[in-house]
Amino acid sequence: MTLHTLLDYETLRVAWWLLLGVLLIAFAITDGFDLGTGALLHLVARTDTERRIVINSIGPVWEGNQVWLILGGGAIFAAWPPLYAVSFSGFYLAMFAILFALILRPVGIKYRGKRDGLAWRRNWDIALCIGGAVPAVIFGVAVGNVLQGVPFVLDADLRIRYEGTFLGLLNPYALLCGALSLAMVAMHGASWLVLKTGGEVARRARSWGQAAAGAVIVLYAVGGVALWGAVDGYRITSTVNPGGPSNPLFKTAVRAPQAWFDNLAAHPALWGVPLLGFIGAAAAFAALRAGRGLAALAAGALSIAGIIGSVGAAMFPMILPSSRDPRSSLTVWDASSSHLTLFIMLVTALVFVPLIVAYTSWVYHVMRGKVDAESIAKPGGHAY
Amino acid sequence: MDLDIVALSRLQFAMTALYHFLFVPLTIGLSILLAIMETVYVMTGRPIWRQMTKFWGTLFGINFAIGVATGLVMEFQFGMNWSYYSHYVGDVFGAPLAIEGLMAFFLEATFVGLFFFGWDRLSRVGHLVATWAVALGSNFSALWILIANGWMQNPVGSRFNPQTMRMEVTSFFDVLFNPVAQAKFVHTVSAGYVTASVFVLGVSAWYLLQQRHAGIAKRSMTVAASFGLASALSVVVLGDESGYLSTEHQKMKLAAIEAMWHTEPAPAAFTAFGFPDQAARETHFAVHVPWVMGLIGTRSLTTEIPGITELVALAEKRIAQGQRAYQALQQLRALPPGTAPPPALQQAFDENAPQLGYALLLRRYVDDPLQATPAQVAQAAWDTVPPVLPLFWSFRIMVGLGMFFIALMAVFFVLSARRRLDRHRWLLKLAVFAIPLPWVAAELGWIVAELGRQPWIIEGLLPTAAAVSDLGAMTVLLTLVGFTALYTVLLVIEMGLMLKAIRQGPQPDLSPEVPLQHPVALNPPAQGASS
To answer: Which residue out of B59, B60, B83, B492 would a mutagenesis test of the A interface target, given it has the greatest number of A Cβ atoms within 10 Å?
Structure first.
């Protein structure tokens, strides 16, 4: 079988690097508003009916949205096995916290409405808030640490030794990224609520959404300046063989100030990516001010794509730099699956991702319209 | 047991996987039963079938929530706790997991929202399509997960690459159509169908005993008994296929399950009862049934099934081969980059590479496998024997339960055909008490499959002990306690809600129902409630 050589290894690696970005952005955009509504639950909804409106607004769609995360995990495992192995074991306790919080979410959404007790519902509300806010913050913290380099070393057998601590993850720059991530999902969640709800809930969502969009702009700007002034980047120092075997130890790399701006200097057009992050957030702010939920949602999605995309644009071809031993860093050219696996997975993704987008769009279309007190009170339905 | 990172990681995986599998079989089976019930509704137009679909759908939803939540943990913990495994086999093992997401889980999770929220927004056929999409999605999920698991049992279609120090795919087709994976898939989904059938049968029997909801209960029992009978037969037949394939691919697992300490003249006897003693390497109080084992294992009267002692001798030879592969690998890697290896060296590696994993078994006793003493080699060879006693009994209890399900389903199938479902109270009680049994059988089945693979994480390729992440034992203990606490609380809550929903029983179906003149007339496309 040589069908897979139709596409060379280098092209496949770049394609999978792009797809990795697409999956992360798709997760952040779709499940982002679910996480955001959870994080904002107590702020935008005070009464039980209001909270049920918020939960039911995401009720029919959040489950599908969350699969972007599961698919992201599976795709990283399949296409970038060393990335899967290093990041998930290195960020072990952080991953545990994310999983713990994410487990609370499906259960909370489904079970909250199954009993009437006040304490029962209040406890699930807290669980839903944790389930929305904690993963958002930790994902941001993780990205903040990736930008600074992660303290891991690969030995000759490519065994991973992680030399950092959980508390070490919580450094100021990473926390800044965590806050940015939380602001992002809060902005997006608020836009969703403006689109899907009315009355008091939508009114509160509008003001919280504007605050979040403002926070996105400020935090992203601070993050960018700090990346220039206070956070070192990494660059490869040996000749690169983009079609070579996936063994990170075959190269050398160094840590250097402003290395994360190499790509932007070489290709000034790339400045458009971070610019999209700012413009999208500003447009979301304006749309929220005007009470236009759909426009705010679209603008927020562009902002999220720009912000996540800018991390990729800055780091390419680095994926996961090692602060302890830059040679161990994982890059696009030495941390992928084999040529054959990348090809098979690409074909599968090209067949199924459009299908997924198609039927997901149909479900959103079927479930269109606002959720209000009347629609969740209807008998016989399965509203949460 | 002191705080050993391998033992703790295994314990955590076993706990989270067995817990996850408390919810999976019911999802797999009940989704199909819901689709069948709703199909009857759409074809006959009788509202009671819609009410049934909604009622069992409520129970499905309570179960599904935790299944999804705990499935997340499964997707991530290979990287968290088994990072060397993830590096070593990600090229092969990651693909089915990713395809599961692309092809199956997206379908299931996207349409499950419509199943619950779409009753008033979709035409009848439209909603039925959503329900079938959920059922197909959950069953396809099982297919891809078992392709991944089947590869751990029988690692086909792949080769070790010395440059990247990992296994890489050589034939995706072989991974996909791995006979072990295919047999496991049908066995596992059938077990899911039996679980759901026993569940529906038992809950319905309870309603009949209480003299409530007789209409729904009897119809549900008819569906469950017919579907359950076919599934129960399929579980046992396909389980037998698994056994037959084990003779070919996992001889040690089979020998351990049967506590066959020595090769016997063909056809081997089946040990129906006994207490295997791993230290003494014999089975106390054994009761043998002549011929049966040979027939099941080889489907012939003349083929021998190798016993444990003989397989250990084979493992010893493979360790020697593995050492040669290991030595050749070190020499290959010592070459300056870019130089072509001497043909003799390449040949030495290629010939012995399939047994490379056996050299890694020695790591338990010595850092450099080439320095192992003959005594250590012998010890490592005996390490290839999995724990016999738990395998022996888990297997027998599982098979016994499988036979019981066939009988149970057959009885209710006959009662249903003769319209006598509510005649025999003791049978109804039996059906109620049978509810937990499919879970027992399913969990024991996984124990047989996974404990029987030890000491390997991938049969013959990578020892479990070599696959763990470099984590502190206290760290893993912390998450083990954390998961256990969370899962325990959730299980209590889940059971509480299940029992509450069952006690409440089917709710009157108050959604607008268009009166029907013709059985197959469709609802006009419903207007969205607020759109």
So the answer is: B83
